[in-house]
């Protein structure tokens, strides 16, 4: 059996509350991600998905359990204060401005990613822009000159440029127009897998997650309540919480009926 790329074992993360006391945001959660796979993490707002992602990047203190990435333990502040990027993890956030510097051209930011890539790659900024379905010659523009959907695709290009082994999307489609959400999610899967990375795709939207994930983990109140192949969780949910999430989803069109990515 292949060793997992990421191994989260009984992870617990707690926050100190301002008025005293603590909140257990992630409670003994275990989750493995295999190399070259896409795992969806779904659950309602506040269930602990982002906390889990931040802990994987070494950005949260770990109250219990263990995280291993590529065989090495991840501790708070990253391994010896190495940022997640150096460990080979890249995150794409809900708000692309969290990943992009509004004062620098998008080309120069993608170039930073290419320079940080530990492998010698033959891709150029133009290649990456093309990969995210943008014109190859827009590298000289600034983030504000793009639509929200285009900015998010630039953030994905920037993340992929640095050659991560694990790409984490923390609600990366939540701020996009509904008609674009599935297309951007599909693109993210394709780029991650084509570049040899695994993808942890975090979303509250089980319908979209199901279209791109091999496996789905369902989280509720800090605990993973159900895990299985995307098809199994979608067609035959075992947990009442998952059944409620599914019942709340309106009928979904096939991906083929969705419009293109020009917005
Ligand atoms: N820095 C913090 N201090 C105290 N509590 C926090 C902190 N960050 C998150 N929380 C709380 O921890 C719980 C889990 O939050 P988290 O952001 O991980 O959930 P989530 O599932 O990602 O939700 P969302 O999609 O809304 O971000 C929530 O109750 C949240 O209010």
TrEMBL record:
Keyword Nucleotide-binding: yes
Matches recorded under CDD domains: ABC_NikE_OppD_transporters
Keywords annotated in UniProt: ATP-binding, Nucleotide-binding, Transport
One Gene Ontology term of the molecular function aspect: ATP binding
Keyword Oxidoreductase annotated: no
Stretches assigned to the ABC transporter domain: 6-246
Gene Ontology BP, a term: transmembrane transport
Entries under PANTHER family matching the protein: D,D-DIPEPTIDE TRANSPORT ATP-BINDING PROTEIN DDPF-RELATED (PTHR43776:SF7), TRANSPORT ATP-BINDING PROTEIN (PTHR43776)
Family under the similarity heading: Belongs to the ABC transporter superfamily.
Name listed for the protein in its UniProt record: Peptide/nickel transport system ATP-binding protein
Organism: Leucobacter komagatae
